[in-house]
Write a structure and sequence with these properties.
By secondary structure, the protein is an alpha+beta fold. It has helices at about 95-100, 105-110, 115-120, 165-170, 175-185; strands spanning about 20-30, 35-40, 45-60, 65-70, 80-90, 125, 130-135, 150-155, 185-190, 195-205. Bound molecules: zinc ion.
Length: about 210
C-alpha cells in the first residue's frame, strides 16, 4: 500500500504508519496594498484604485494629517486614503511619522491592508485582486491520534481568501481533489474564510 503524504516534505513510504498528530502552521501575508473600487471623477464611473506607496503628510501647527495616495488604474486620478486626520503631533510616534515621510514600503503595505482604515474611509475593497503569500512557521510535532494531521492558518490581516481556495495550494493538490476529500469528511474546517486563525483537520491516508 502506498501512502501519499499530504505534506510534500514528509515522505511516507510503503506501509509506514503515520502515528502522530502532524501540525503545520502557516501565516498568510499580503504582498500588495488592497485595491479600492470607487467612483472616479476622471473616468466618470467606477474604477479600480491602487496604492502608489506614497504618503502625503500635512503638518498644521500641532496637528498632523496623513494619507496614503491611491491612483485610478485607468486615468491616474488620485484618491487620498486617510490614515490620520488632525492627529496631535505628540501622539504620533516619531518612528511612525518618519516611516510616512520616507514612504517606507512596509508601512504602506501595513496601512494598505488595515481593515479598520478601510472601514473608516468607507473604501470598497476589490476582493478579486488580493495578492498574498504564505510562510510556513516552525512547529512541534505532537504525539497523538493515528493518521491525523492538523493545519493551522494564521491570517493576521484577515485577508478574505477562501479557505477552500488556499488549502489546495498548501497541500499541493487540485481543487477537485480537495472537494472530494471534504465530501468524504477527510478534511474538516469551519467557516468560509480563515478569519484571524483557523484549524483544519485531516484524516490520513488520503485515497
Ligand atoms: Zn479614472
Amino acid at each position: 500500500m502506498v501512502i501519499v503524504s499530504a505534506y510534500p516534505e514528509i515522505q511516507v513510504k510503503g506501509d509506514a504508519k503515520v502515528d502522530y498528530l502532524n501540525t503545520t502552521e502557516y501565516r498568510i501575508k499580503p504582498i500588495s496594498a488592497l485595491k479600492i473600487i470607487r467612483n472616479c471623477a476622471g473616468c466618470g464611473k467606477k474604477s479600480v484604485f491602487a496604492s502608489t506607496g506614497q504618503f502625503r503628510v500635512n503638518a498644521n501647527g500641532n496637528l498632523v494629517d496623513v494619507w496614503l495616495i491611491y491612483r485610478c488604474e485607468k486615468c491616474k486620478h488620485t484618491f487620498n486614503f486617510s490614515v490620520y486626520e488632525r492627529m496631535k503631533a505628540e501622539r504620533l510616534p516619531k518612528e511612525q511619522y518618519m516611516a510616512f515621510l520616507r514612504n517606507e514600503e512596509d508601512m504602506a503595505l501595513k496601512i494598505g491592508n488595515d481593515l479598520n482604515l478601510f472601514r473608516k474611509n468607507k473604501a470598497e475593497i476589490d476582493a478579486d485582486q488580493l495578492e498574498y503569500t504564505y510562510e510556513k512557521l516552525d512547529c512541534d510535532y505532537e504525539n497523538a491520534g493515528a493518521g491525523q494531521g492538523k493545519i493551522i492558518i494564521h491570517n493576521p490581516f484577515k485577508m478574505k481568501i477562501r479557505t477552500d481556495k488556499l488549502l489546495p495550494e498548501l497541500l499541493g493538490m487540485s481543487r477537485s481533489q480537495m472537494k472530494k476529500l471534504l465530501k468524504e469528511d477527510k478534511i474538516r474546517f469551519e467557516g468560509t474564510y480563515p478569519g484571524d486563525m483557523t484549524e483544519i483537520f485531516l484524516d490520513f491516508p488520503f485515497p
